[in-house]
């Protein structure tokens, strides 16, 4: 569920913060009663708690939505090499909270660890090394229905091209009310299915550093994200590209698509991955 202005999804295993791009999980270790040295007992319990937290973090990675078709579990299932790479990243998780607690009167240590989705030590280095579209795990069955769901009129360009201002610093997609889910690799489409953003050649270092988009549940919070810049172009989709696994891709009207491409040609905010989604 989203929390505050940012977009945080809470699972049994931990939390995925799609605004900050972090995963966090908590573990607990009981302090052994048969250890007379309480300092040593604390250290043992802290070690147990950290291992428990890392195990929860690994299960949380399985829940990360990569794109509309695949989750982290689908990617990791491809090879032992990839699973080992992810495990290696998780071993470097940072302890962000540590405290002594009591469970039914017994002393225990609770440890919370976190790992970034993006950056040099982020999971994206393992999960986004190749475009998600090229992944080959078995896909879930797709419904035999039109996948493009248009909920608002598709405004076309007509005789006049959209006015180009050339001053936009980023893009905010206000997709509230459409049931869109956060993902590491979302796409923005035209009504005919043409991909406007989310596929193609991007700077690989920048992609691994920040991912394709950030997510918020509040427009003001989205505006405050540095990716949006001081003057973001704000567009509302007319629909989504719905799949059986997840709905992560949005559809713009032809008029807004033309506006987006024309403005990007001036200031290159899409090329710089300056994209923020606002979702429910």
Keywords:
Thiol Ester Dehydrase, Chain A, 5-stranded mixed sheet, 7 helices, 14 strands, 5-stranded antiparallel sheet, 2 domains, 280 residues, alpha/beta, 26% helix, single chain
Structural features, described:
The chain has 280 residues and is an alpha/beta fold. It has helices spanning 38-63, 72-76, 80-91, 124-127, 204-210, 219-224, 254-267, and strands spanning 8-10, 15-17, 22-30, 94-103, 106-116, 148-150, 170-174, 188-190, 195-197, 214-216, 232-235, 239-241, 249-252, 275-278. The protein folds into two domains: 8-127, Roll (Thiol Ester Dehydrase, Chain A); 140-278, no CATH class. Strands 1-2-3-5-4 form a five-stranded antiparallel beta sheet. A five-stranded mixed beta sheet has the order 6-12-13-8-9.
Helix content: 25-40%
Q: Structural class, please?
A: alpha/beta
Radius of gyration: 21 Å
Number of domains: 2
Question: What number is the mean pLDDT?
Answer: 90
In spatial order, strands of the major sheet run 1-2-3-5-4
Helical segment count: 7
Shape from CA axes?
elongated
Order of helices and strands: EEEHHHEEHEEEEHEHEEEHE
How far apart lie the N and C ends?
9 Å
Q: Describe the largest sheet.
A: 5 strands, antiparallel
Low-confidence spans: pLDDT under 50, at least 5 residues? 131-138
Assess the beta-strand content as a share of residues.
15-25%
């Amino acid at each position: 569920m989203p929390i505050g202005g940012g977009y945080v999804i809470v699972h049994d295993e931990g939390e995925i913060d799609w605004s900050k791009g972090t995963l966090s999980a908590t573990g607990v270790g009981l302090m052994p009663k048969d250890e007379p040295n309480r300092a040593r007992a604390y250290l043992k319990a802290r070690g147990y708690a950290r291992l428990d937290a890392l195990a929860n973090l690994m299960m949380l990675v399985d829940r990360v939505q990569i794109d509309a078709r695949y989750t982290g579990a689908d990617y990791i299932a491809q090879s032992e090499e990839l699973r080992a790479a992810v495990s290696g990243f998780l071993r470097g998780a940072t302890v962000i909270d540590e405290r002594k607690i009591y469970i039914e009167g017994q002393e225990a240590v609770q440890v919370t660890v976190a790992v970034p989705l993006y950056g040099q030590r982020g999971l994206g280095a393992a999960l986004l090394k190749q475009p998600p579209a090229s992944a080959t795990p078995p896909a879930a069955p797709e419904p035999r229905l039109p996948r493009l769901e248009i909920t608002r009129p598709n405004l076309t360009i007509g005789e006049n091209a959209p006015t180009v201002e050339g001053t936009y610093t980023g893009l905010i997609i206000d997709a509230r009310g459409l049931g869109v889910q956060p993902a590491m690799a979302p796409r923005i489409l035209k009504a005919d299915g043409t991909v406007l953003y989310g596929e193609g050649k991007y700077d690989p270092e920048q992609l691994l550093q920040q991912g394709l988009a950030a997510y918020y549940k509040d427009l003001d919070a989205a505006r405050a994200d540095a990716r949006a810049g001081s003057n973001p172009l704000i567009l509302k989709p007319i629909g989504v590209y719905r799949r059986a696994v997840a709905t992560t891709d949005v559809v713009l009207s032809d008029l807004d698509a033309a506006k987006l491409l024309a403005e990007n040609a001036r200031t290159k905010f899409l090329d710089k991955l300056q994209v923020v989604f606002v979702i429910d």
